[in-house]
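[agent] plan:
  1. take the single chain provided in the ticket
  2. run structure prediction with default settings
  3. attach structure tokens to the ticket
  4. add a short note for the reviewer (M.T.)
[agent] executing step 1
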Amino acid sequence: MSQSFSPQTKAAIAGLWTGNLFAPFLVSGVAAMLPAIGASLEGSAVALSLVMVCYNLGQGISHMLSGRICGMLGVKRVLLAGVALFCLFGILLALAQNMAFAIGIRFAQGLAAASISCCVTALSVSLAPPQRRGQVISTVVTSVYLGLAVGPLVCGALTELAGWRSVFFVVAFFGAADLLLLKRVIPDQPPAAPDLPFNVLNAALAVVSLGLITFGATCHFLHPGVIWLLPAGFVLLALFVRLELRTEHPILELRVLSKVKGLPGGMAATFINYGAIMGLSVFFSLYLQQVLGLNAFAAGCVMMTQSLMQMLFSPVAGRLADRFDAVRISILGMAGCGASILALTLLDAHSPVWQVVLQQACLGTGIAFFVAPNVSATLGNVPQEYMPMASGLLGCLRTLGGLMSHILMAGIIGWYMGSASVNAQNAGLFLQAMRCTLILFGSLNMLALFFGLRRSRKTAEKA
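[agent] step 2 finished; step 3 output follows
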């Protein structure tokens, strides 16, 4: 870290880095532990999938509301509460005796995790001087990639040695230690709008709409009729946006935020580019195990390449964003993502593993050069009082972009394969579905690239 930072700022960045590690660590780690959790709690395949679905739902809801709550209570208070609740819910999850309780607690943990992410992003931007903003953001973001990379390995090892419950106790212990550090080193910040009322109706619309979208998109395997929850969710989401633009005290200050230079374009690029890349991990997992015949551990090691490259190159991207135009660096990252997506269409049933590793490395590098510079460029001009709200909105769009990615992926796989299983006998159908989806994802990436180039041109004209 640069000598321009005071010891307290360095300690604060270290605390934010650690706080940002726990949620992604458990996201990938819980996925690896699902068979052990199911065996222990006698959970069906549907129940195990709901462990992941409800966590994502909690994140989406929290991203939507955290910014407004931060304005009422203050960013530091919300961050400390989020870390404390994340640890508490982890302990309760370790003590779970049935799947219903585990699913509910995992949903609550998703709420806490997203509030941490929102506050960490806002504080990373506000604590850093403008000339070092990209460096700080990229440093904090590396913990996300590290957590995603090592989560399956560490959680798998702990599960084998001491059982799956031990993972949540260990995370709670380190989370409590980080809570004490954050309480000491994060400067006190008064709430931006402590006296404004909380719009309960709009908040309820946000919660219900995201719930309907999430379950409609991911739970149609329970019953085909569930898919109709999806359009209902989008209708309520549109109603939420309409009311937000008209109400005097909105949950999201859309009217104000829309006037911040670079924010609308950055938000659009975030939503679309995440829609193009978030579903790829599912294809990689199925392709490596069901088409190439790798076991789960070997497939995990191959897929870990992406997170490792993101962790390695994110600091480089942050420094380049500080030295040059952050928008242009993010455009470079988007182009890298697009090239990687198109390269994936070359995979077939006989592709060597090294080719998959290479393409994972290219994709991870592209994502690294997109994420931190895009956050820096998007949130860099947001007024301090609106920073938590803008950070929460950015996180919400990441979540919705990833959800859109999974909706498109599931729909195309269903179109090509119907109810057929993904196995060696159906590898041809799966590869057709994968190539069609990749072409669509590549088209989405081109759309995100268009928004990035347009934003870069506007920045150059105003300079």
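[agent] step 4 note for reviewer: The chain is about 80% helix and 0% strand.
[agent] ticket updated
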